[in-house]
Amino acid sequence: MQNKKEVAWLLKEKYSGRPTKAFYRDIERLKIGEPLDYVIGFTEFLGCRINLSKKPLIPRPETEFWVQKTITHTLTNSSLSGCSGCKKIKVLDVFSGSGCIGIAVLKYIKNVNVVFADNDKKCIEQTKINLSLNSNSQTNLSLIRANKRFVRKKRYVVVKSDVFSNIKGKFDYIFANPPYIPKKNKNKVQKSVLKYEPEKALFGGSDGLFYVKKFLKQAKDHLNKNGVIFMEFDPPQKKEITKLLKKYKYSNWKFHKDQYNKWRWVGIR
User: Fold this and answer.
1) CATH number of the domain bearing residue 205
2) What pTM does this model have?
3) β strands within 100-196, DSSP E
């Protein structure tokens, strides 16, 4: 039997409590295993509405957890974050997918500019949709005193890039949620995830470290002095990632656990 909570959530969020013919068609989509977030068409991520019409990777609770931690404990405590006259904090959201991480940063950190980067055309389109959807948090109104008019300034740019291939300059913070599931573990992934979510956003080569290696090899060259890299990974990869951090001559890092007590993300200075 179809999960009653999912049906109730679908009816409330997508149909405002009014069951239509389309609602019953959507129930059939749920019955064959399509993820609820795709059927509804959006999900929530740290108070931001994330549209999923282009079928990007669905943001996970684990990602939401660590992004909230970094925003709360690192970015908001930055000496630059509350300084109206200071130089803008530069942030890169690489492997941006739906754009959920960078959009949350824009929402909660006002003195920030974000570059979104992904190599998938649909993800680029999805990020632009979500930036527009959350537009109240993505622009600043600046007063030009000479003629006393307001000018709307964008606080972001979206770039199609294979990791750092089209990225210029350096950043104060780099967020990365690369594809990291080992292909050898494909049989352990939920069938609905394999069937509906983009494979290239899930798998990182045979050992899951293909994009992690590519990212870590180049990331330090795009980091400002005293900058921080935040990267999500698969818990069993902690030991191998430690080796990679030493190989690529990083000097300071700390691993963190998610809400399920699993190693999930690393902060690298």
Assistant:
1) 3.40.50.150
2) 0.90
3) 112-118, 139-144, 149-154, 156-160, 171-176
